[in-house]
């Protein structure tokens, strides 16, 4: 069916396809340029176009590309398009095609032509080309952005790198406190001379590894015999004391056992007595209820009733007394079960726990005396007590030494024999307020580049003019250099090492870095 549409100076007709197609097709003159050949359209729309029969060969489903061209009064306008063959004739000629991959700009250009044509207005080249130019500019802008995306990415990466470097510089400047000197430390084992005499050393040097039981030095002395006799006499006295306390311990345990048995018997007797009192009280309460009824009926006098009530109160008082006694017995049984029996159960006013403690002390003293006797028997020979590193040698070969003179300072290498191994670090004194006990710190050993995490255990003032450091037991701690400038002052921190750190040795250099939080920095600044 045809409908008339009036345009300025001309009349055009079109076919309405609104009931069958998404886009209305119009008969506005247009041509399709395919491979340089111009094919006039029968009709076209924003969704596709149709061709006259016997013009263009093709098969259904074929895809192609070309330009949709319009001859306007002031010039030719064309727009690129891609199409797919949808209808063909029996002879194999293309009758209808559908656009695909048509971008929004070109789609709007074609729609503007359709809308202008349908409303009967004159189609102006300026209005059509404006959509085409916009679409072309949009495509070029997208292509340009796609081609230059790597430039934006490079700029972003460079900017991010600069920001990261700046942040790391600020962190290393403000948040990180680095040690000026640090080393692995541990209480050293001091090998002393046990007598007066002339020292004979082997060929040892500091840092050397010695095996357990290896001969370290010997002392030739005339006093060795006297010391041996003295130690044997002390050993005899200790053995007598051990025998006495062993007998006392046996007697104490027997006394506690007897007392425990007596308590159980007494508890059984009192419990039975209490049970009988409860039965008696129940019977008297029944009699009291009968007396109360008898008083009301006049067969029992009031005095008898009140005397019965008094008897019941006496029984209750006796039951409370027995309860107190039972509680006392149970408390004593609990004390015995915990190993702290009451004084009444102890012999000579000593508990088995006290006797056992005394025996442990005597046995340790005996072992030490036996060790000293064994060394004296070998003419003053001193052996390495463990597999150790030699930290220092404090005497020279041929030197006359006295009893108790320190000859070797040793550091155990076995993890099971190490005690209080730590990292000693000298930190800047002016930033001491930012360091806290329990703060995690990072450290690296000279023998290993791996980052390890330790914990600050102790913080104290340190001056190179008084560089000796001791632990709570009075043992010396080795590790820090002895040649620091005397006027320098530091904050000394003791760091508990990581559980993964099992190979470090005494005096091994280290580097410690404490990282504080911004909150602590601000609090420190505001408190200045």
TrEMBL record:
The record's InterPro entries line, in alphabetical order, gives: UPF0194_transport (IPR050465)
Name the residues that span the membrane.
149-170
| Species this chain originates from | Enterovibrio norvegicus
Q: Cross-referenced PANTHER family, in alphabetical order?
A: EFFLUX SYSTEM COMPONENT YKNX-RELATED
- What name is this protein filed under? HlyD family efflux transporter periplasmic adaptor subunit
Which UniProt keywords are given for this protein, alphabetically ordered?
A: Coiled coil, Membrane, Transmembrane, Transmembrane helix
Coiled coil feature spans: none
Q: Where in the cell is it found?
A: Cell envelope
Where would you say this protein principally sits, based on its record?
Answer: other
């Amino acid at each position: 069916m045809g409908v008339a549409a009036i345009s300025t100076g001309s009349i055009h007709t079109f076919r309405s396809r609104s009931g069958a197609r998404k886009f209305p097709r119009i008969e506005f003159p247009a041509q399709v340029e395919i491979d340089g050949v111009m094919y006039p359209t029968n009709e076209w729309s924003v969704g596709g176009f149709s061709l006259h029969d016997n013009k263009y060969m093709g098969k259904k489903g074929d895809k192609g590309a070309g330009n949709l061209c319009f001859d306007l009064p002031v010039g030719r306008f064309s727009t690129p398009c891609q199409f797919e063959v949808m209808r063909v004739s029996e002879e194999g000629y293309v009758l209808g095609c559908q656009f695909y991959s048509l971008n929004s700009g070109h789609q709007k250009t074609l729609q503007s032509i359709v809308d202008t044509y349908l409303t009967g207005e004159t189609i102006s080249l300026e209005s059509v080309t404006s959509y085409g130019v916009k679409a072309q500019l949009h495509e070029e802008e997208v292509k340009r952005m796609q081609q230059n995306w790597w430039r934006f990415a490079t700029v972003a990466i460079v900017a991010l790198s600069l920001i990261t470097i700046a942040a790391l510089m600020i962190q290393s400047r403000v948040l990180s406190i680095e040690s000026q000197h640090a080393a692995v430390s541990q209480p050293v084992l001091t090998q002393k001379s046990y007598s007066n005499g002339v020292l004979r050393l082997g060929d040892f040097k500091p840092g050397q590894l010695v095996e357990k039981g290896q001969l370290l030095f010997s002392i030739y002395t005339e006093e060795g015999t006297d010391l041996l006799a003295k130690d044997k006499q002390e050993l005899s006295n200790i053995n007598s004391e051990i025998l006495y306390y062993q007998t006392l311990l046996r007697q104490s345990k027997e006394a506690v056992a007897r007392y425990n048995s007596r308590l159980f018997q007494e508890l059984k007797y009192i419990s039975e007595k209490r049970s009988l009192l409860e039965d008696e009280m129940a019977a008297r309460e029944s009699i009291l209820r009968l007396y109360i009824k008898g008083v009301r009926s006049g067969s029992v006098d009031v005095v008898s009733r009140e005397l019965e009530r008094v008897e019941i109160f006496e029984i209750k008082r006796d039951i409370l007394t027995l309860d107190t006694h039972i509680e006392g017995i149970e408390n004593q049984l609990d004390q015995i079960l915990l190993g702290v029996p009451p004084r009444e159960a102890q012999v000579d006013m000593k508990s088995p726990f006290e006797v056992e403690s005394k025996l442990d002390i005597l046995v340790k003293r005996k072992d030490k005396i036996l060790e000293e006797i064994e060394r004296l028997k070998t003419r003053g020979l001193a052996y390495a007590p463990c597999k150790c590193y030699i930290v220092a040698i404090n005497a020279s070969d041929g030197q006359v030494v006295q009893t108790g003179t320190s000859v070797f300072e040793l550091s155990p290498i076995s993890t099971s024999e190490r005690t209080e191994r730590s990292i000693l670090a000298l930190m800047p004194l002016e930033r001491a307020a930012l360091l806290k006990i329990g703060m995690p710190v990072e450290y690296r050993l000279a023998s290993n580049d791996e980052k390890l995490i330790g914990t600050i255990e102790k913080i104290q003032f340190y001056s190179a003019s008084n560089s000796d450091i001791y632990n709570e037991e009075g043992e010396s701690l080795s590790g820090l250099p002895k040649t620091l400038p005397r006027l320098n002052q530091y904050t000394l921190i003791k760091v508990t090492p990581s559980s993964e750190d099992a190979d470090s040795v005494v005096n091994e250099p280290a580097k410690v870095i404490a990282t504080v939080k911004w909150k602590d920095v601000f609090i420190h600044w505001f408190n200045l």
